[in-house]
Amino acid sequence: MEGLTTRVFRKVHSEIFGPADSYYIPFVTPTSEPKFTERQMRELNPALNSGLNVIPQLLTNKPQDFEWAAKALYDLGYSEVNLNLGCPAGTVVAKCKGSGLLRNFDVLRPLLDGIFSQEHQIKISIKTRLGWSNPEEFEDLANLYSQYPLAKLIIHPRLKTDQYKGDCRKEIFEANFNKFSFPVGYNGDIVSTKDIHETLGRFPTLSMLMVGRGLVADPALFRKFNRGSAASKAEIRDFSEKLFTGYTEAFGSAKNAVMRMKEYWFFQLNLLSTEDKLAKKLFKAKDVQQYEDAVEAIYENSDILPEARFGWHKPL
Known about the structure:
By secondary structure, the chain is α/β, with parallel strands linked by helices. It contains 14 helices and seven strands.
C-alpha cells in the first residue's frame, strides 16, 4: 500500500474511525548515507504520527544500512522496526529487496546474520511470503527465521510469483505457524469481519492480524470487529474528502491528489453498490472538477454494503 497509506491516511483514519492497534509505514529504503531524506522524514517525523503506534518497514539487503536506520528510528522514539521481505513489486525485486531476497539465501542469510549480530534497543520483526515460486521453500525459510530473536513474524501466505492472484495458501501457513518460538501474525485477503473471525478461529494462537487493502475498502472494519458501528455514508464521504484535502496539501497539487484518490477508490468502491458506469466515469476523470462530479454521482446513487466485497486480484 505504498503511496496510499501515508501519514495522511493514518491521521484521517484514526480521527474518523478510531486508531488501529498499529500502523505500518511502507516503505523506507535506507541508503549507504546514514541519514533519512527529507521525503522520508515527512513520514517518519514523530510529530506527524502523534498518538499513534507506528512501525516503519525497511526495504534493504545490506545489514549496515539496516543498522544505522534501526538506530536512527529508535532515537526518533520508535519501539519496533519491520524488515519487509514480502513486497513483490518488480522494481523492488529487481534490486534483490523485499520478496526478491526469498530466492537469494546467499544474500538473505548474511543480511539476517549481520542484523542480529548487533545489539539493538529497538524490536525487530519481519514480514515475509512463503517463498519465491514453490510452497516447499517455506520449510527452509522457517528454519532460517527460527535462528533469530524476532519480535514477531508476519506471514502473507502467498509466493512471490503469486503476486496477489488466487487464494492465500492457508494450508501451508496452518502447517507451520505454530512451529515458531516468537509471535506470529497473519496477513492476506482479510476484507470483512467474517474473514477476521474465520482467520482467528482457524489460527487461534495468532498474535496479530495485518490488514491492508481490506481496511482501505472498509475503514470501519476494525471498529465493526470490536462491536462498533459500520461506516455510514456520511463517514465515508468525510473520510474521502479529508483524504483528498490531505493528499492535495502533501503533494502540493490537486491533480496529483486526484490520481492518488483513484487508487483509493479502486478499493473503496467495494463497500458501495456503485454501478459500473459511475465507477468508469470516476476513473476517467482528467481534472478536479470531473473527479468531484463523479464522486458526487457515486454518493447520490450508491448505498453502503454490510461488508466490503473482495474485488481486487492484481496489484496497482
